[in-house]
Amino acid sequence: MLKVNNITKYYGDFLAVDHLSFEVKKGEIFGLLGVNGAGKTTTFRMIIGLLEPTSGTITLNNKPIDYSITDKIGFLTEERSLLTKLTVKEQAIYYGTLKGMPKNIILDKLDYYLNRFHMLEYKDRKIKELSKGNQQKIQFVMAILNDPELLILDEPFSGLDPLNVQLFMDIITELKNKGTIIIFSSHRMEHVEMFCEKLVVLLKGKSVLSGNLLQIKKDYCKKNIHIVAENVNFDDLQKVNGVLDIIQNPNEIIVKIENHDIVKEVFEIIKQSTDVSKFVVEDATLNEIFLEKVGVLYDK
After folding, report:
1. Residues 46, 119 share a domain
2. Second label for 42, Cα 20 to 30 Å away, from 197, 206, 239, 240?
3. Closest CA to 2 of 183, 270, 127
4. Chain mean position to CA 82
5. Within a domain: 291
6. What gap in Å lies between CA 143 and CA 122, rounded to an integer?
7. 275 class by beta-carbon count within 10 Å (0-12 exposed, 13-18 middle, 19+ buried)
8. pTM assigned to the model
9. Domain range enclosing 205
10. Which helix (H) or strand (E) holds 27?
11. CA–CA gap between residue 257 and residue 264 (Å, rounded)
């Protein structure tokens, strides 16, 4: 288990992280979210031992994180961190050696993951000769080459097309199922919703929203009604007390409502329409919750 207990980090007089606590168990994917400058990168650096907290403690399996256990950690940073003059193979050997891996294991692991990403022909290519998307794949491979117990993924899907996003997702899921502790950060909330069971949202270094993702969505009263129908009476819909917004997309109508009590009144109007083929009530998206929660506090 990773345990972050009441950590604070000051840079001089600037408070970057403010009494942050959370736990991530083996086989869990935990979301650490926030706007730019919220304190995510500082938190990551404290977790992997690059920075010392001003106060508080961080432990992995009840042990402080120091050089004796950093070989068990993988970190994919948001910024490119590859040595671009090296070949993919040289980069893997360099990184794997730093993690204490035998050369034959490094090369076996490299071939396995390059094959998964359909990149075996790039093994002897210099990093700088690869596209941004392929560099991101190599950076991901470097982060998981040592079969980490703790894996930190900061914007892992940056620069990837949907096919490669799916490949990443498949491997991340496999690592989760093997018991890897995974911390996931992304500005794409739909990616967070696909993966994360628990999360913390940071604002100015402080947790402003935390808990189980399903419970967070359940506790957020606002709902979205997805409708496919013809000849909808929009004037009557707009008059319903508790209808917050009506969005007319090319393929469906989305009615945003204040709470579930409004559903029946909206349905009574929609059933008078023609060719009604869809009326589905869904929780608000994490993106909507994030924007409202963080946006209100950010403006203060």
Report:
1. yes
2. 197
3. 183
4. 22
5. no
6. 18
7. exposed
8. 0.88
9. 2-217
10. none
11. 11
